[in-house]
Amino acid sequence: MIQTGLGNSHAKIILMGEHSVVYGEPAIAMPISEIKCSVTMKSTTDGQQTLDSRYFSGQINDLPTDMTGIAQVINILEQRFYGQDDTWHMKITSMLPAERGMGSSAATTIALIRCFYDYYQATLTEDELLKLADLEEHITHNNPSGLDAATVSSSHPIWFIRDQVIEPFEMKMNATLVIADTGIRGKTKEAIALVKTQLRDQPQATQSVIHQLGELTVQAATCLKNNQSLELGQLFNQAQTLLADLGLSHSEIDKLIKVAKVNGALGAKFTGGGRGGCIIAIAKNQTDAKLISDKLIDAGATATWVQPLNTIGVNHD
């Protein structure tokens, strides 16, 4: 009898709070269920453990160094289920683009862990899931906050204050989110270093901007809980202005934001580290979102995704 396993996860984006979150301000992360990752396992009789993915195909023992975190998690799970001598084929299928701030490595790890537990028909708690994912994230990202793993495994938005709070919250929002990839890899480390330099050289002005970004995040949480899409769009615009003032935007980001707003977006900003990566825009409904998405592709976006917010963490009361 063939033994099988399946595990799923999804992308995440930072809705509000980029960069300011590094300095103790809150951030809101949003699960993007439309951008999926899945891992499957099927038992084999060829005496091998093999993996097929867009980055590597071959035997598990030959995984490249940039997949060391994945290899470590697989090793731990095999020991947990006494499966070192079991043979299987694993396939990773991911819609998540790498280095776009969408939590690609965390999503793969979460789906893989869920797949192993399904394969061995074991119960997996949320706490155990995040502990195992944290092992991979420490190898891949050195000092992870835990936000990526928490969000790519959640069906709710996440309210986050570094080293203090990671908690889901209920949302009531009928608007639709449009995500567009500039096609330029985000430069998160460079952007973080830039803000750090500005804090050193212009501490008062930079700290004021960071605090304002934190205040906008608090207001955005209220909007999400009360279906205030117009107000949320205005907060997006204000946050983008502040982030651009810090030198964190990019000409392609600015171009796509302008296109989104001209074509009906209530507001738009970049998401993640900046200086590339993705933008997000709020649309009143899915019809507007589709139009905005099409126009963004026409303007040079390399990919777009449409995520109805009323399918994420909705409070039906």
From TrEMBL:
<keyword id="KW-0460">Magnesium</keyword>
<dbReference type="InterPro" id="IPR020568">
    <property type="entry name" value="Ribosomal_Su5_D2-typ_SF"/>
</dbReference>
<keyword id="KW-0418">Kinase</keyword>
<keyword id="KW-0547">Nucleotide-binding</keyword>
<dbReference type="GO" id="GO:0004496">
    <property type="term" value="F:mevalonate kinase activity"/>
</dbReference>
<dbReference type="GO" id="GO:0005524">
    <property type="term" value="F:ATP binding"/>
</dbReference>
<feature type="domain" description="GHMP kinase N-terminal">
    <location>
        <begin position="72"/>
        <end position="151"/>
    </location>
</feature>
<keyword id="KW-0808">Transferase</keyword>
<dbReference type="InterPro" id="IPR036554">
    <property type="entry name" value="GHMP_kinase_C_sf"/>
</dbReference>
<dbReference type="Pfam" id="PF00288">
    <property type="entry name" value="GHMP_kinases_N"/>
</dbReference>
<protein>
    <submittedName>
        <fullName>Mevalonate kinase</fullName>
        <ecNumber>2.7.1.36</ecNumber>
    </submittedName>
</protein>
<keyword id="KW-0067">ATP-binding</keyword>
<feature type="domain" description="GHMP kinase C-terminal">
    <location>
        <begin position="224"/>
        <end position="299"/>
    </location>
</feature>
<dbReference type="InterPro" id="IPR006205">
    <property type="entry name" value="Mev_gal_kin"/>
</dbReference>
<dbReference type="GO" id="GO:0019287">
    <property type="term" value="P:isopentenyl diphosphate biosynthetic process, mevalonate pathway"/>
</dbReference>
<dbReference type="InterPro" id="IPR006204">
    <property type="entry name" value="GHMP_kinase_N_dom"/>
</dbReference>
<dbReference type="InterPro" id="IPR013750">
    <property type="entry name" value="GHMP_kinase_C_dom"/>
</dbReference>
<dbReference type="InterPro" id="IPR014721">
    <property type="entry name" value="Ribsml_uS5_D2-typ_fold_subgr"/>
</dbReference>
<keyword id="KW-0444">Lipid biosynthesis</keyword>
<keyword id="KW-0963">Cytoplasm</keyword>
<dbReference type="GO" id="GO:0005829">
    <property type="term" value="C:cytosol"/>
</dbReference>
<dbReference type="Pfam" id="PF08544">
    <property type="entry name" value="GHMP_kinases_C"/>
</dbReference>
<comment type="pathway">
    <text>Isoprenoid biosynthesis; isopentenyl diphosphate biosynthesis via mevalonate pathway; isopentenyl diphosphate from (R)-mevalonate: step 1/3.</text>
</comment>
<keyword id="KW-0443">Lipid metabolism</keyword>
